Amino acid sequence: MDNLAKLREAVSVANKALPEQGLVTMHSGNASGYDPAEDLLYIKPSGMDYDQITPDNLVPVRVSTGEVLVEGVRPSVDLPHHLFIYRNIEGVRGVIHTHSNYATAFAAVGHAVPLVLTAIADEFGAEIPCAPYVDNEDSHIGEAILKYRNRAPSILMGNHGVFAWGDSPRSALKAAVMTEDVAKTVWLAMQIGTPKVIPAEEAEKWYDRYHNRYGQG
Ligand SMILES: [Zn+2]
User: What is this structure's pTM?
Assistant: First the structure.
């Protein structure tokens, strides 16, 4: 498989994983992947059922110009936000947007997911920030992501949902799944008490271990 075929396959898998992981209902989320060498991204077609998605019906888009490279099929309406992230955050190769329930509950009240779990320190290295509400005209969402993001690979958009990213569609999916998972745990914790923030220097140890020493190298 050439690189673009691999990318199409990865974007198809990431989109199909959204309902499988419980992150979307109906059509409320989308995944894309980007190959900078080809100046190309692939993204979910607008309004298509996830079980209908294949590597061959994803929508190719020229990233430098935003030009849709096939006729007769429209890309996800969230394409402008995906393009903005690829053009403005170094190293991003996969982007996912969802309205996953627990994370979006935090977004509804304008709260970050606080750094109160070692899992949050591991994966995100910071609280998961929440940007204030913006509409979806022009680059308002993209600009808010740039302004309010920290080093975590996801952000809550106030009153809206989640954007997550990574160095591949798979790592963007992981960030989206972990965002929802930790938001659920923190929400549960808030029912029985006040979650305790992990001190920054302790969080740094977990982040460093996870990013530099964990896994198979
Ligand atoms: Zn949305």
Answer: 0.95
